[in-house]
Amino acid sequence: MKHSRNKFGLSDRTSSVILVIIALLLIVIVAYPIYYVLIASFSNPYDVYAGKTFFWPSGFTLRGYQAVFADSNIFRGYLNSAKYTIIGTAFSVVMLYITAYPLTQRDLPGRKAISLFFIITMYFGGGLIPTYLIVKETNLIGNMWALFLPGGVSVANMILVRNYFQNSIPHELIEAAEIDGCSKLKTFLKIVIPLSLPIMAVMVVFSMVAYWNDWFTALIYLPKPEMAPLPLVLRNILIKSSATAKQSSTISGGYAELNKITEMIKFSSIIVAAAPMLILYPMVQKYFEKGMMSGAVKG
Amino acid sequence: MAAKKKQLSRRIRANWQMYLLLLIPVVITFIYKYIPMYGIQIAFRDFSANKGIFGSDWVGLYWFKRFFSSPNCLRMIRNTFLLSAFSLLWGFPVPIILSLCMNQLRFPKLKRVTQTVLYAPHFISTMVICGMIKIFLSPSGGLLNLILGSQVDFLTESTAFRTIYIVSGIWQDAGWGCIIYLATLATVDTCLYEAAKVDGASVWQRIVHIDLPALLPMAILNLILSAGSLMNVGFEKVWLLQTDLNKATSDIIAVYVYEQGIEHAKYSYSTAVGLFNTVINLLLLIIVNKIAKRHSDVEFV
To answer: Which stretches are transmembrane (chain A) (predicted)?
Structure first.
């Protein structure tokens, strides 16, 4: 029992305190940049740049948010992103399910070959231009479906779903259903799907996040500005630092005021773009590890 | 033989609904993944729109030669490799250390909150992350300059680019990277901890002798996967953070492929450069996999 102090001479209690301090420090490091943007979004931008908003807003104002919601480009981007996220998620999750379930059927002739057919696409692809040319060839440039179809099946997620089916759904239930005369499709719809809601929740969130945050696919395949998703609209504001034409014409008070609004919009648009997903993911967080775990174990 | 065939056809018939489900994913994957793979041959052709992908003139290695003789070729290969290698070097250990710490945290509520907070940046778009980087690094009133009391425009300094890229990358994804390690640690038999406690092992000793060995296979697997995509450095952040003044370190192959292909419509040239990158990646994947196979029983591909 003499060993209760380790080579650093720390007792369990001291180590425990150190771990708590590390955890708190990590929380601050990760959360502070987001918190800073949040308080800056409610502050006078000149106060922000003068260093008056380290902990609390200064010169409280909602003008940044008013400007964001009054900007028709941002609003349209928001609607576009919402539309792409909803349709894309529905499409992707259906694709994951209809690919994963047949591949759990041990008596399916060709199962290994079909699995390999999908897995190869994880390691090797045609690359940017050949894929672009096929998308063009299939007339999808400027079509919303260009965001969904070329991605095909997300194989890494499909494997997680497949392993969940194999590891977390009792085999006896499926066998019993099939003995009772359920067809494979009916078993899938009536038993497997209802019992797989935890992994479905995880996949829905993963896919929503991916579509909500995606802009590169739209940059290549959706050249029309009116189809741009939110992040792409924000590129002008955040990266190029230019006010949109719509804003400059609606703002009175001249150049100085315009400048101020341009700066405020940077903060508020970041919050507006990030908030939906930051609110969403903690709701299914408890399933992440479960899903990862049952997925990581080979079936 | 005949009986076997009969059995096979019965199994196929028993599974017809399953084939029907697979039909759509297979067709989509074939069209948008496999046909482009076949379309890589435009790297060896002089693509022209009216002759099409498979009918354009064959030019052999012309585009590859052109790439290797282009003035920035070496710089791009070097930048791509270094950016990625440094990201891996700094980024790889962080999630392992974080998960070891969190796993030993005795207060479930604090553990939960820490996890939630650490995952958060993963759910933010690279566009927004880069917007935040621009705000924090702004020469006039950016947070970093306020703290340092300086007015440096970090995004125009080529020496700062890699640090910006790597630090922001760790901030965004290290927390999320923990999830797989935490899930692995959750499978460690608690009897081991009890036994270690009885034997008088400290927290530190428990981490080194129980947790670390438990994580090792997963860590090696992750290392192999990352090393195999070493040349696949993320295009998005680099493209958004690139300025004319930091190009000495931010000029990478992926950005060049995009510019040549999409912006300048040089389809064959862009494909050739991309293919060169893919081939290096595949070679790396094979080499790393061989090494890992020799030194442990972990193998992925």
So the answer is: 16-38, 84-104, 116-135, 141-161, 191-212, 264-284
At which residue do the structure tokens 């070959």 appear? Answer: A113
Please state the domain extents for chain A: 2-49, 64-296
Within 8 A of A121 by CB-CB distance, chain B residues are 29, 33-34
Residues of A within 8 A of B132 (CB-CB) are 33, 37, 270
Any B CB within 8 A of A93 CB = no
Please check whether the domain covering B67-295 is classified as CATH 3.30.365.10.
no
Asked whether the beta carbons of A283 and A50 are under 8 A apart, the reply is: no
Find the CB nearest B31 among A138, A280, A288: A138
Rounded to two decimals, what is the model's pTM? Answer: 0.89
Cα of B78 to nearest chain A Cα, Å: 21
pLDDT in tens, B92-116: 999 999 999 999 888 989 999 999 9
CATH class of this structure's domain A64-296 = mainly alpha
Chain B interface includes A296 (CB < 8 A): yes
ipTM over the 0.90 cut-off: no
- Report phi then psi at B58, rounded to 5: -80, 125
CB atoms within 10 A of CB A216: 17
Q: How many whole angstroms separate alpha carbon B142 and alpha carbon B240?
A: 18
